[in-house]
Amino acid sequence: MIKITLPDGAQKEFEAGITALDVAKSISEGLARNVLAAEVNGVVVDAFKPIDTDASLKLLTWTNDEGKSTFWHSSAHLMAEAIQELFPDTKFAIGPPIERGFYYDIDLGETKITEEDLLKIEKLMKEKASKKSRFERKAVSKADAITYFTEKQDPYKLELIENLQDGSISFYTQGDFTDLCRGPHIPNTGFIKAIKLTNIAGAYWRGDEKNKMLTRIYGVTFPSNKELEEYNIMMEEAKKRDHRKIGKELELFTFSEKVGQGLPMWLPKGAMLRQRLENFLQKAQLEVGYLPVITPHIGNINLYKTSGHYEKYGADSFQAIKTPHEGEEFFLKPMNCPHHCEIYKTSPKSYKDLPVRYAEFGTVYRYEQAGELHGLTRVRGFTQDDAHLFCRPDQVLEEFKKVIDLVLYVFNALGFKDYTAQISLRDKENKTKYIGSDENWEIAENAIRQAASEKGLTTVEVTGEAAFYGPKLDFMVKDALGRSWQLGTVQVDYNLPERFELEYTDSDNTKKRPVMIHRAPFGSMERFVAVLLEHCAGRLPLWLVPTQVKILPISDKYQEYAAQVLTALKKADIRAEIDERQEKIGKKIRDTELQKIPYMLVLGEKEMNEGIVSVRKHGTGDEGAKTIDEFTGSLQQEIKEKTDQQ
């Protein structure tokens, strides 16, 4: 007999070899019908895998993220089965679940897949799902796996097998499709009730543009048609909120092929929006002791060799810039931190001088493949709201907590209320991706855990997502549509101070290494603005919006009065414009609504004679007449309430 401990602490005894599905049935048949997978001793496994020893057990359903992930992984296999039947010569690469749905990368040879083909694949997937085929796992030897995929002529699977250890390889089969896969999977295909294939894209094999371009098919599935309908409604809303569409409508930013892919240019209104965000953070930073610095856009190659960035990213970055001087090479700056390390070294530091906090809105450049570029969220040149804090080991916890406070101040001021703090740790099984000693990594990881705990943050821990020089606290923010974005980040680093030989003189007159904290509440200005636009559907907070008020004279007779109103608004530090077009007032109002300008002031005979303005609010409509002083006072109060809410 073995003991199974459930999440509520209850323990039950069963015979060894029982499965999670059997445990679920012992609780209720209804529960068993909804179990997709199981978490046994913290590891997600098939619900039908035998449990042979005492274990903690969590039953996973559609309500769990792990359950959804297993559901979508199985859906990728179902899609591959349908593709194999319709296009028998297809070579299969990888088919993982993603945050919302799944994809499979395939090699169709000379065949070009169309939107019409997606409908055929969808139809066949539904037919196969209805057969309720079991997902059968089979452990295979490396030799047998190689033989199978050699006969199948599937080069991508053979390449994956090369890096696998004998004894750790498994196949999963459902219906007529067998795939190389570690699992887990749902019990059978019958759980999949609603299917939508959403997109066709190109993707280089293993993300390397030197490799062949494969076809990537995206899809999403659900356990009911109702959820698919809700998803379709959300996707329609997402299209309306696309920051690229809103950015064009509001004249915020643009791209030019002649300038180069992934290099955004900020138009006047966008530049002013960005400047206000920068001013907002700069003011908050100065109040808590940050010192502004400015560093060049390029750096000598040896700077990045010292920091370790060249070793880790040099091959994937922009090529070196050579000067007329033989052997002299520079790189476009991929990070600001090496420059800040050199600034720290310009003068000797005592333990009394620490912490030192350097802040910079520094533009950096990283090469991204053309197929991965997307509006402002994935670019090749972007500006980070970067800061680096150099402190004593005994100051790390307090400084880290202050940075968390600053990140939350930014989120609250901009309406991001739903977020999770992700503690991003290194992968201890693959330490070659990182620099620094095990001891320093342990200290840094524990410092982040403690700081997050003391600030009362909801946290999750994710292995393998750390920076190469240290662990991170990444803030995963959910927008108005429930989509998750990584925005603010804080990182503890014991390694760069070692590599740059940074020092301070301690109270006992010995030389010590400072600890470095990297932080960026916005992350990057480009990505942050994109997420903000989609979150608020272009209806930016009043204090931030480029134009706060549009003045709408009914005819030319009232232009002079409109100019007087504009002067009064500007004196009150309110951003306003006059619509001087020869258009009817109805059209002016409609156009201003489309521009998402918060307030409109309609001016006609009555308003001019009485020295008042008729106020309309975006999305609300007529708010009645006010004196200019009343209106400016109400706006100033509204702005103050939002920006001083902390």
TrEMBL record:
Record's signal peptide: none
Highest taxon of the lineage: Bacteria
Heme keyword on record: no
Compartment list: Cytoplasm
Cofactor: Zn(2+)
Entry GO MF terms: threonine-tRNA ligase activity
Keyword flag tRNA-binding: yes
Residues binding Zn(2+), per UniProt: C337, H388, H518
The enzyme's E.C. designation: 6.1.1.3
Keyword annotations from UniProtKB, A to Z: Aminoacyl-tRNA synthetase, ATP-binding, Cytoplasm, Ligase, Metal-binding, Nucleotide-binding, Protein biosynthesis, RNA-binding, tRNA-binding, Zinc
Record-annotated TGS domain positions: 1-61
Family membership: Belongs to the class-II aminoacyl-tRNA synthetase family.
Subunit relationships: Homodimer.
Descriptive protein name: Threonine--tRNA ligase
The species this protein was found in: Niabella yanshanensis
